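FORM 7B: Structural annotation worksheet

SECTION A. Query
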Amino acid sequence: MSKEIQIKTERLLRLISQAGLGGILINSQPNFSWLTAGGRNATDLSREAGAGTIFLRRDGKRFVLANKIEMERLLTEELDGQGYEPVDFAWEEEKGNPNIIAHVARSLTTESLLIGSDLISGEDVRVIEGDIARARYQLTEDEIERFKSLGKDAGQAIGTVGRQLEPGISEREVARRAIDALSAVGAFPVVTLVAADDRLRRFRHPVPTDLQWKKVVMIVVCARRDGLVASLTRIVCDGVIPEDLDIRTRSSAVVNAALFDGTRPGMTGRELYELAARAYREVGFPGEEHLHHQGGAAGYRTRDWVAHPLSTEKVQDAQAFAWNPSITGSKTEETCIAFEDRIEIITTSPDWPSIPIEVEGRAYALPGVLSL
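SECTION B. Predicted structure
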């Protein structure tokens, strides 16, 4: 067992002990990737559930539960050398019994204790996804390196796509190029948004259409690799950048820098939301925080939690964040990792226009608009 997997297993064993559980079932695709250091139990990306479940028993014994279709691939390609004991069953049995995972897990423990789960429900099984998610938040050293590598590759890939765009192509074509560029570095965009011209002002989540861009286009991706997800936004303009777009982008960058500076261990989601709201007022765009969420904690989901007025979630050391402040008609977005004494932006695009912002003596660089 690698050091990374050992650390994560120990976190879950502490949770099992504190909650008085007989074990924990891990089935969701993000949690499976987290616990296995990038393994995939995904075959159908339209579902949250994966085709394979890990059962960590109270005594530390680890099992993988899956139907006979999936088991060999999981053991060979996703869990090789990790020491899981396989427990399989017929796919017909799985289809005929929606509670089969809970029943199998119960058969593997003699203690009459509840079993925790991230997704699976059933008799004597309690969903504790919130607690499991919190065990994910602090990145290990190996995860930090993988995340930095993903951010570097994603930033470079989307930066290259942006520099090679030409007016007249459709939003769908822009999206295709972004998807292809990320695929070339082994990443898959779980979110791909593109807004051309007026759609940039009208919609905060612009699903690509056949509209051809003329003056301005925005690309948004959330790229996943090894389970980790890095998010970024880039805006491209044909020719001279309109003054209004420049002002709104620079103002968004100021809000983003304020959020970066505030992302310190111990800060709550509520405090960060209030910080963003204050920054919008100070740059002359009060109330923009009500028109779109500002982002929040990231990792194995696009956002583990979002900053909002009632959020009590706290920033942890070595936790990833993706902030995406937007002012109608523009937006900035980068992914960073927060440490005790600093944040490190991981999704920068080489040679992309940069907006330097200083907050309390600390310098941050946010992406500006690229003029072709």
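SECTION C. Observations
Residues 146 and 226 are 8 Å apart (CA to CA). The chain has two domains: 3-136, 141-371.

SECTION D. Sign-off
Analyst initials: ____
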